[in-house]
Amino acid sequence: MYNSKIIGLGHYVPDNVVTNDDLSKVMDTNDAWIQERTGIKERRHVVSGDGDTTTTMGVKAAKIAIERAGIDKDDIDFIVFATLSPDYYFPGPGVLVQRDLGIKTVGALDVRNQCSGFVYAISVADQYIKTGMYKNILVIGSELHSHGLDMTTRGRGVSVIFGDGAGAAILSREEDNSKGILSTHLHSEGQHAEELSLIAPGMGKRWVNDIIADNDPNDESYYPYMNGQFVFKNAVVRFSEVIIEGLEKNKLKSTDIDLLVPHQANLRISQFIQKKFQLTDDQVFNNIMKYGNTTAASIPIALTEAWEEGKVKDGDLVVLAAFGSGFTWGSVIIRW
């Protein structure tokens, strides 16, 4: 069996910067309130009409990753696209990326695991490469949240957190089993599904004709809901568990970690995990301050920036970890 390794990374974020002060003009909030609770200073939002979609942002990130990987687009054997905000209800964005990049008729898979989406997507791609089925896989995480948020005081608890953007990675075959992705670890706990959710539109809630007929402006099921404190308490526990699980699987300790790249959900969660594992600031990469929570895009954006800044070097032990809606969570242990 082979290992898989990341040979190219890329990311893209919209040009439009939305600061906390900008949000205070449309809802009852302020910079201090947002930073105290989340650590976020600003985020990027797609401007309507500028052409950016979940797919196009993913394509832009993918082109950078492909170029850096030193491969041709036709060397890609498979596409895995993680998002909770697809362009269409169906088909998913995986096939749209295949079309827009002009890649031959390879398979395209969509992953709907929200904040854990990129970790799940990496795990799927890793298994395909480990078994020898594919050699080069394009993995994308992309989100366009801003057009679906409740940008009023009613929705501020959620809307101040999320931003738009995309990240991409090229996974390729590695014959040295001591390098690349050493293991991935995935979990779920559906009993808490509604604690972080967007209920409508959903075919289980009502028929499409009923949705159109109702058109109720007070129906909050069309906006994301989050039980913030409950999610936070579960996140810090599951983050810790799944990181430890990955380390123990590979007979490693927290002192072996060179860089932890956590899903950028909340800076306070990252800081809690950093303190628990006694990691220094140089051992944990955070960029939520600039981009907010970009859900499935957050880890690939952060990993790309960390690599660009020289924080990821050959031989480093890199740990990716995520927790989010579902609840779902997971980790990836990488020897770079």
From TrEMBL:
Pathway(s) per entry: Lipid metabolism; fatty acid biosynthesis
Compartment annotation: Cytoplasm
Active site: C115, H263, N293
Biological process annotations from GO: fatty acid biosynthetic process; secondary metabolite biosynthetic process
Region (ACP-binding): 264-268
Keyword Membrane: no
Superkingdom assignment: Bacteria
Domain Beta-ketoacyl-[acyl-carrier-protein] synthase III C-terminal: 247-336
E.C. number: 2.3.1.180
Signal peptide feature range: none
Residue ranges constituting the Beta-ketoacyl-[acyl-carrier-protein] synthase III N-terminal domain according to the UniProt record: 109-190
Chief location category: cytoplasm
Family, per entry: Belongs to the thiolase-like superfamily. FabH family.
Name assigned to this protein: Beta-ketoacyl-[acyl-carrier-protein] synthase III
Organism the protein comes from: Maribacter arcticus
